[in-house]
Amino acid sequence: MANRCSKTIVQKLISISLLCLLLLVAVPAALAEPGKAATSTPVPTETVTPAPAITPTPDATPAVTPDPTPTTRKVLSTAKWENDHVSMLVTNNGGPVTVEAYIDDPSNAVTTTVKQGATVRVNTNSITAEEGQIIVFGFKAFENGVQIDEFEGSLIVGQTQVSPTPLPETSSLSGTVIDSATNAPVEGAEVVLKSQSFDKDYKAVTDSSGSYLLANIYPDTYDIIITKNGYKQEVRHTISKIEGAETLDAIAIQKAATGTTPTTAPGAAPTPTPASPLDAWLSLILNPTACIATAGGAVGLILSLTALYEWIQRQKEQRRSRENGQQPPAEQPPQELIL
Hints:
Among the domains are: 76-156, Immunoglobulin-like (Sandwich), CATH 2.60.40; 171-253, Sandwich (Immunoglobulin-like), CATH 2.60.40.1120. The protein contains three helices and 15 strands. The protein has helices at 2-32, 277-285, 288-323, and strands spanning 76-82, 85-91, 97-103, 110-114, 119-123, 134-143, 146-156, 171-179, 190-195, 201-205, 211-217, 222-227, 234-237, 245-247, 251-253. It has a four-stranded antiparallel β-sheet, with no helix packed on it. Strands 8, 11, 14 and 15 form a four-stranded mixed β-sheet that branches.
């Protein structure tokens, strides 16, 4: 009776295993071709194509192209003293430019137009000067009302050739440096002025109130560079020439980013990301190698459990035979299972 029962159990378990194998093969095939269900072919119907509608073409509106903004370029090159005035060599390789020239007093400037492609000398007004007298002069070039070049210097009367001579360092610049987030004054920030016309830099350091003062500088336009440990570098440019004593608005500087990146302790294993049961099942059935290995393992487990069950039943029969005084049946050697 026990043998028949165990055989029945084995047959059912093998049937279940075969059914699992069929499911493991059928499900990937169904997932691989989702949209292959039988569909009926609709009967083609005659389509009437409507006549195309006539869309009136609007009158073309001519586009207005704005004048390009002039960019800075070099047109002023060589200045020269000529008896009672200063002349400047102007080489114009772009559009027409207007050159303003003054001597001694900027309010007495004269204007000259230089055509495109022309190379001419532009003169200042004439003055009466003595030998050895220092003369201050300047030239500015404009294109479409925008300044594109500038030359300012000084000379000693009697010299025929003039090079860009720095003006006396009579100007000064002051201001404050603040924190961009809190508006608090920043102490110890370095402020550097770089002259755009002359090869010279000026440096200062802010005090406890965030203030700085740069005295005895050239009347010129400057690049302003502010640096401070823990802050991003800030660069500004003066629009107009610094003349006399001038004070700039407060310059705000921004703290440098100090974000940290999370790290894993040395030797620590990364924390696995839990997957859903559905994801685990799909990854299994879509991988043929893993699918067959899993099915083979399941069949082996089922057969092993069946063999264990039969051995337990034989042990029970032998115990009952001994209790009833009967000769227990001979022990059958276990059969080898070949998978």
